[in-house]
Structure formats: C-alpha cells, structure tokens
Backbone:
C-alpha cells in the first residue's frame, strides 16, 4: 500500500481527498496545524472510509517539525500539499502572514522531501492565476496574469518554486489549478466549515436558504455575460478530490510527460450567479431571495476551464452536475444546523 502525506488534510478539499485516497487503497498520513479545522474531521474521514489514518499536528512553517514528520512516517511515496491560508481579503490585510505561511510551508516540505528521498508532489493551485483570461475556455498555456492579491501571488510563486525545483532536483510535480470547488460529501459528515459571513457564493446561498441571511447580494449585474452576472466553473469537491488520486497515480506510475505538469480542474461549463440561484431552486425547491448589488472589487468577469488536458493525460473528468453540487451543499448545511440527522 502506497503511503500519501496529505498536508491540510482536515480542511475542506483535504478531507474529501483523504476519503478518496482511503477508498482507493492508499495509506493516508495527515499533517495539519488545525488552525482552520477541527480534530473531529479525522474521525469523520475514518467513519466514512471505514479505515484508519495517521494524524500529526504539525506547524509546516517550522523546518524541524517537518523533518521530524518525515522521520516518523517512513517511506512516504507522495505528498499532496493543501495546507495554506486562503482568504483573499485577509491576504490583502496581512500580506507577510500569507507569504510566510504559504511559501515557508511549501519550501520546508520540498526540502524534507529531498532529504528523505520522496519524489512526488501534488500542489493545490487555483484558476486565480489566470486573472481575467483573454480567451475562454481557458487552457493551461494561457498567460498567467499579475496576481491581484498576496493569496493569488502565493499560488503563482508556489507554481514557480515547483517548476524551478523540478528542473534540477529529483522532484516530479503536478499543479492542479482548481476552478470553484463547491458542495460536500454525500454523507454530510464533511464539507466547508464557515467562520462568520461566507465570502463564497454557495455557502451564502445555503445560509440564505436556511434563513440565517435575509437575501443574497449578487455582486454585479452589468458584466458582459449573457445575464450580466459573473460566470464561474463550479466543480463538486468530490470531483476535485478524485483529480488528486489521478495526479498521484500519474506520478507514481511515471506517466508525467514532463517532470512538472499543470492541469485545469473544472467541469468546463460556465454558470452565472443567476444560473446558480436558479439551479438551487431546481435542485432543492427553495427560492433564494436576492438583490442586485454593485460589483465586488477584484472579481473577474468570466472564467471556465478547458478540460481537455486533464482528460487526455490524467484520464480524469468531473462527474457531478451542478444540481448534485447544490444538493450536497444544502444537505451539509442542514446537517450542521441539526435540521436533519
Ligand atoms: N458572489 C455573489 N454574492 C456573494 C458571494 C459571491 O454574487 O455573496 C459572486 C461573486 O461576485 C462571483 C461568484 O459569486 O461572481 C463566485 O464568487 P466566490 O467568492 O464563490 O468565488 P470566486 O470566484 O470569487 O473565488 C475563486 C476561488 C478563490 C480564489 C478566487 C480568486 O474560490 O479561492 O477565485 O479569484 F481565491
């Protein structure tokens, strides 16, 4: 059984990926500092998969702690690196915290991988690197635009660190550029935990459906899109998780065409904000009250993925529909609120 280290494995995408890794027969080691997640998630992952994982509370920004982790968990075959701070607004307020946290952690892991002879690395990147793309759907060869936020810049720099490391060091890596991950595991045991007012669209919709928010503000209705609202490529978090299994397998089987590869992880379909509100009503029978509001600073008008490369090389494609995504998000919201068991 191959052993995979998942950093940030108790977080939103990390927890879903850990479940899929266990389902696929991998041994899973999670390293997380629990700064944005709870230890209960470990039990929940184990409950869903019916298998045990090895958990380490680690500060990845601390070199010594990372080395100790690799020493304790011998024979790691690959690392999937999720652990990162990810709030765009917060990163603007606290740029140094973001650069320190996101870049030091990644560098420390790569250093330990070299020291302990671990070769394979999968990186959580983001479609944010494309900014406002010139052509749609956006391909992996599209220009990387100057980052709008320190958060976005840590993703761009993280990719460059990998590209340069793969050139001269015994490291093979894949960056997965996620589009908009949404939804939750069908069990309702894991999902995206909200702290305070949700920044992202789908949690805001489910909190409005639950009655916690009176209405949804739709940020901008004068964009050059079919209905004037922004267009995104929403993807079920379980599909994002299975993309990581495909990436790990590609690395472990020596199938990466180059030592460093980049893949878009989306459905290839663009949905506007209004499309999402309507899809939620169709999926759940609940109409979301909304108000058309001014544009939100920093939003791109439209972005959705060209998914051909992931299909032809990783043999991966998204399976879930937007209704699946929204039903699972609503199920998660209701379970958290104790509305359903
Ligand atoms: N939106 C609303 N109302 C809300 C929340 C969001 O209308 O209350 C709109 C946004 O304006 C945007 C769309 O819904 O048009 C999606 O917004 P999200 O915040 O859910 O997602 P983003 O596309 O802004 O965020 C994505 C990733 C982030 C990444 C960011 C960078 O989820 O991790 O792109 O551009 F940082």
Residues:
């Amino acid at each position: 059984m191959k052993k995979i280290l998942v950093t940030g494995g108790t977080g939103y995408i990390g927890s879903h990926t850990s479940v899929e890794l266990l389902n696929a027969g991998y041994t899973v080691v999670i390293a997380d500092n629990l700064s944005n997640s709870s230890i209960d998630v470990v039990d929940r992952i184990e409950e869903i998969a019916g298998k045990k994982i090895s958990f380490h509370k680690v500060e990845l920004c601390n070199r010594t702690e990372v080395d100790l982790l690799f020493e304790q968990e011998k024979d790691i075959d690959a690392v999937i690196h999720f652990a990162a701070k990810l709030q765009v607004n917060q990163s603007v307020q606290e740029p140094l915290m973001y650069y320190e946290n996101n870049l030091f952690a990644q560098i420390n892991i790569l250093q330990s991988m070299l020291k302990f002879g671990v070769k394979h690395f999968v990186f959580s990147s983001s479609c944010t690197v494309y900014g406002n793309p010139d052509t749609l759907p956006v391909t992996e060869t599209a220009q990387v635009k100057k980052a709008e936020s320190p958060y976005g810049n840590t993703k761009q720099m993280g990719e460059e660190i990998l590209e340069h490391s793969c050139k001269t060091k015994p490291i093979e890596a894949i960056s997965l550029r996620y589009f908009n991950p949404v939804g939750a595991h069908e069990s309702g045991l894991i999902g995206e935990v909200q702290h305070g007012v949700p920044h992202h669209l789908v949690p805001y919709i489910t909190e409005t459906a639950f009655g916690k928010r009176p209405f949804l503000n739709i940020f901008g209705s004068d964009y050059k899109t079919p209905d004037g609202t922004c267009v995104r490529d929403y993807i079920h978090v379980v599909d994002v998780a299975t993309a990581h299994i495909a990436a790990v397998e590609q690395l472990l089987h020596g199938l990466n065409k180059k030592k460093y590869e980049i893949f878009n992880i989306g459905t290839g379909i663009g949905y506007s904000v209004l499309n999402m509100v309507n899809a939620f009503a169709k999926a759940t029978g609940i109409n979301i009250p909304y108000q058309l509001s001014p544009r939100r600073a920093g939003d791109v008008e439209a972005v959705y993925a060209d998914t051909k490369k992931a299909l032809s090389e990783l043999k991966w494609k998204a399976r879930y529909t937007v209704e699946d995504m929204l039903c699972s998000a609503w199920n998660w919201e209701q379970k958290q609120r104790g509305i359903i068991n």
Summary: The longest strand covers residues 120-126. The pocket of UFG is lined by residues 86, 88, 126, 128, 151, 180, 199-201, 204, 216-219, 230, 232, 273, 296, 299 (CB under 6 Å). The chain has eleven helices and 13 strands. The CA atoms of residues 220 and 294 lie 5 Å apart.
